[in-house]
Amino acid sequence: MKISYQSTGTPRARLAGFPSTTVEGASHEEPLVRSPYPAAPRREIIPPHPDHAVRTLTHDFPSEICGWGAHPEYEIHLITKTSGSFIAGDHVGTFAPGHVSIMGPNLPHDWVSDLPPGQVAVDRDAVIQFTDDWVRQCMQLIPELSEVDEVLRQSTRGLVFSGATAWRAAETILQVVRSSGTEQIGHLFSLLATFARSPQEEREVVASEWLGRPTDANSLNAVEAGLAYIFENLTGDIRLATAARLAYMSEPTFSKYFKSATGMTFSSMVKRLRIAHARRLLDTTDEPVAQVAALSGYHNMANFNRQFLTEVGTTPTAYRRLESSQKPPSEVLSLGRRATAE
């Protein structure tokens, strides 16, 4: 079962053979468009289909379903093109083509690509979603599936795969998305086996065991408004007061709910996303360091160097000179509180 979401040519997502995806609190008469002025929190509601246990889809970026949010289903996710910032729970990292992850039930997540205004990355994502009830019932009937239990448990904090595991998984994810029926379920079980048998060094649990996951409308509203505002003004002037106004909250209220939902302050989120952006510019362009600082929202070189050193462990100039294998992994962007595998 495949659903293809498109962000151009129609104001609504084009669905095929599956009940419409909705966003809680949104009008069904209006396009579901991401906006820095959210009228309601984003909680993706995925209606069950009587003839399909697994939901697969591809979608563009930007598209109607992109944005900070959560849902009760497991989500296996593949980025096929572009690079950008990846947020899961309280983790802030980076992604590039081939980024493979599994997000557990109700873990807030978002992938935001670095694209010029007006540009669309077609079929940026390949996604597989299924419920905990379904996979647990399968495990009861098929004891061999019990080997995936640890992966499912770790995915509640988000799992990102690398190396040969990610390479093999990416191919299998596309096979799942492109197939149907018994063949599709077979590919999915093969994918879960790849995850379950992956070496520990090729899987990373990304989110910390913090208790502040957003479970209420105010927290989700604060994060959706705050993140949209940050991403749209990453290189410019970002103010807490503006973010609070976009969320229709006072500054103290916004700050409280934003930290409750993300595990960090608004200013910390701005800093980490700007440093992640600077790191990608250093990796992918020949722009002078001073220009990288300006393009990342820093207009004081001393401050830029200090913030980059704190987040990455080296100065921007020294970072650019490192070989790829020597550069610090993306986990250094993860709040300074490393999650450990259980």
From TrEMBL:
TM helices/strands, residue ranges: none
HTH araC/xylS-type domain sequence ranges: 224-322
Keywords: Activator, DNA-binding, Transcription, Transcription regulation
Region entry Disordered, spans: 1-37, 321-342
One Pfam assignment: HTH_18
Source organism phylogeny: Bacteria, Bacillati, Actinomycetota, Actinomycetes, Micrococcales
Biased composition (Polar residues): 1-10
Gene3D superfamilies according to UniProt: Homeodomain-like (1.10.10.60)
Domain of life, source organism: Bacteria
Keyword Cell membrane annotated: no
Single annotated GO MF: DNA-binding transcription factor activity
PROSITE patterns assigned to the protein according to its UniProt record, in alphabetical order: HTH_ARAC_FAMILY_1, HTH_ARAC_FAMILY_2
Organism per entry: Phycicoccus duodecadis
The protein's name: AraC-like DNA-binding protein
InterPro entries (UniProt xref): AraC_XylS_family_regulators, Homeodomain-like_sf, HTH-like, HTH_AraC, HTH_AraC-typ_CS
